[in-house]
Write a structure and sequence with these properties.
The protein is of the alpha/beta class and about 350 residues long. It has 14 helices and ten strands. The protein is globular, with a radius of gyration of 20 Å.
Length: about 350
């Protein structure tokens, strides 16, 4: 019997180090607005989408490792980070369009999308609007599943909240906020788990332009009753698309029960819970996070969509739906009063 040489992993040949210059911000002007992004590495495209009030800087410790096997693109969403902050549409649908347009200018036709919090909602919306350009989904503590969200975000969505955010810049307020956050952490509350990141988000709103963009983004997805956008009603369309959900079991922003709801609604999805982690599991346990993402992208086949397949899924509709509706349908309607478009 002829000896068969051992097969070397397909990705091993592309392993390379990432220079500091590759992690620096780059810029593209799209529709007249400057959009900042980081781009590094070689291989299949992997898009990292940050959450509300955050920026691509949240991924900088992870990009060098991910870029060994991927072309990593981490944008600053419009209204965030170093991107422009116009008086614009900050809905998840608009953000999905913006990600598509940036990828197009970079010559990237399809990619695996990894989204955190609001970015998870944007990733799901991207997959809904552009399934032919979506290879996989990795959703991290994603918004857009149920109504529940941290009460602080509900309060900030109310009229007059820009005045409260402005007050955070007054002398001495930064120290008071820091002491409060430190106390929450000392008491080992769930909110305290995310204390350092939450303090960073406060610092990321240095002027009125940034604060206005933050509030417009928040109000597009949250009101005083909670999240106003859901993708639960169309999650069945992810059938055939590799999807992984990553969540901290002590998430104080988007509760972990949303992870189980999304997992049930997304056929064939994979769920990984980070014990003891809050809303930022990729900061709490970056080694495990990297291992899961690299293993998931290496062992799954990119989705391949056709118009016929998409039409068939739409015509068949969500499994278990009847004209009269049932308990599951009522739960789904109560999760949100409207959906992303």
């Amino acid at each position: 019997m002829e000896d068969v040489p051992a097969r070397r992993p397909a990705r091993a040949a592309r392993l390379r180090s990432v220079g500091a210059g590759e992690l620096a911000l780059q810029y593209r002007v799209v529709h007249g607005y400057r959009r900042a992004f980081r781009m590094a590495g070689q291989g299949p495209a992997l898009v990292l989408i940050h959450g509300i009030g955050d920026s691509s800087a949240t991924w900088t410790d992870l990009i060098p490792d991910l870029a060994r096997t991927h072309t990593v693109i981490a944008p600053d969403l419009l209204g965030h980070g170093a991107s422009d902050k116009p008086r614009a549409d900050y809905s998840v649908a608009a953000y999905a369009n913006g990600v598509r347009d940036l990828l197009t200018t970079l010559g990237i036709e399809s990619a695996t999308l990894l989204g955190h919090s609001l970015g998870g909602g944007v990733a799901m919306q991207f997959a809904y609007q552009f399934p032919e350009r979506t290879e996989r989904l990795v959703l991290v503590s994603a918004g857009g599943v149920g109504r529940e969200v941290n009460p602080v975000l509900r309060l900030v969505s109310l009229p007059g909240s820009h005045l409260a955010l402005s007050a955070l810049r007054l002398p001495g307020m930064r120290l008071q906020v820091g002491l409060t956050v430190g106390l929450l952490k000392l008491l080992d509350t769930d909110l305290g788990r995310d204390a350092p990141e939450l303090l960073t988000l406060v610092d990321a709103l240095p002027d009125e332009t940034a604060r206005n963009a933050f509030i417009r983004t928040l109000r597009a997805v949250v009101d005083w009753r909670g999240q106003v956008v859901t993708m639960l009603d169309r999650c069945y369309l992810t059938e055939g698309m590799p999807t992984m959900l990553l969540w901290g079991d002590r998430d104080s922003v988007v509760p972990v029960r949303h992870a189980y709801g999304a997992h049930e609604a997304m056929p064939g999805s994979r769920l990984e819970i980070f014990e003891g982690a809050g809303h930022f599991p990729f900061h709490t346990d970056p080694a495990r996070f990297l291992t899961l993402v690299e293993e998931f992208t290496a062992t799954t086949t990119p989705a391949h969509w056709s118009r016929e397949h998409w039409r068939d899924l739409l015509c068949e509709g969500r499994p278990g739906v009847t004209a009269q509706g049932g308990a599951r349908e009522r739960d789904l309607r109560e999760a949100s009063e409207r959906s992303a478009t």
